[in-house]
Every structure is written in structure tokens, then in C-alpha cells.
Design a protein that fits this description.
The protein is an alpha+beta fold. It is 29% helix and 30% strand. It is built from four helices and seven strands, in the order H-E-E-H-E-E-E-H-E-E-H.
């Protein structure tokens, strides 16, 4: 049976964002950005398919990054979202880099197995989601529903 990798990739990306959006019923935006061009693309939370299509298009030629938290509004051209613009936090997350590939630092985990062992031994909570990024892992502990930020006090509590 043949698989269409493009369809599989789209489905995986769509499932990922559906999971981290965590049934957020708010009006917010998610930014993706690319390197080395440092361009930002902004999508309303309801534009999941459009965002996934753009990510798939960009991954052929660029390193694509995304913001985990939802932003209140679209950033200025060439800028990314900011902490002050965050309106919804889906949970806590951790980015663990692995030595090699595009990482030049020496103080990283030597391989995936070591990083997963560290995670298991160091943090008592079972992650909701672990994503292999190619250069490491992203680990997520998602809340039952997003933590909404409507005033500075909320932002202070979550930071």
C-alpha cells in the first residue's frame, strides 16, 4: 500500500495543533515563522487547514517554528508574538535539544534515548505529548482546558 507523505504530514500537523489548541473557544491567533528569512505568518485559530497547508509548503525550503500560546492579535510585519500578547496557554512544555545535526553546542544530550531517560527520571508527571523534532524533543503537559489570560494578574500567575 502506498502512502502519500504529504497527506500523512498534513494529518500529523493538524492533529498536533488540534491537541494543543485544547478545545480553545476563544478568538486568538497563532504565529508561525521561518528561518533564515525571519518571516512571520499569522493565522486565526479557526484557520487550521490554511495554516497546515502553509506549514507543509514552507517545510520544503525553510526551518519552520511556531508559537505554542495563542496571541490576542497579529504582530507587526517581521515580528513575532510577545509574552504581553498571549491570551491562552495550553499547558507547560519543554524543548530538549540533542547533540549533532544543526546544533553546535557541546552541552546537549548525546541522543534521543538519553534525553528520554532524563525526562522519565527527573519529572514525576507523565507528559501529554512528546514530539521528535529532528533535533531533539518537545514535551508537553497540557491542561484540561487552556489557561486564559484576561488581565496582568493572570499573566503573573502562569509565568
Amino acid at each position: 500500500m502506498q502512502h502519500n507523505n504529504n497527506i500523512d504530514q498534513k494529518k500529523l500537523i493538524s492533529n498536533y495543533f488540534t491537541i494543543i489548541n485544547n478545545n480553545a473557544h476563544i478568538d486568538g491567533f497563532r504565529n508561525i515563522f521561518i528561518k533564515p528569512d525571519n518571516r512571520t505568518f499569522t493565522f486565526h485559530i479557526n484557520e487550521l487547514n490554511k495554516m497546515v497547508d502553509k506549514i507543509c509548503e514552507l517545510t520544503n525550503q525553510h526551518d519552520v517554528y511556531y508559537e505554542v500560546c495563542l496571541q490576542k492579535e497579529s504582530p507587526l510585519p517581521g515580528r513575532r508574538g510577545s509574552e504581553k500578547g498571549v491570551i491562552a496557554v495550553p499547558g507547560f512544555w519543554l524543548d530538549i535539544d540533542i547533540k549533532g545535526g544543526h546544533h553546535i553546542e557541546d552541552n546537549l544530550f548525546p541522543d534521543l534515548k538519553t534525553s528520554l531517560s532524563f525526562l522519565k527520571e527527573s519529572i514525576a508527571l507523565t507528559p501529554t505529548l512528546i514530539i521528535f523534532t529532528g533535533g531533539g524533543i518537545h514535551v508537553y503537559w497540557l491542561f484540561k482546558e487552556p489557561y486564559l489570560i484576561s488581565k496582568e494578574h493572570d499573566r503573573h500567575l502562569i509565568s
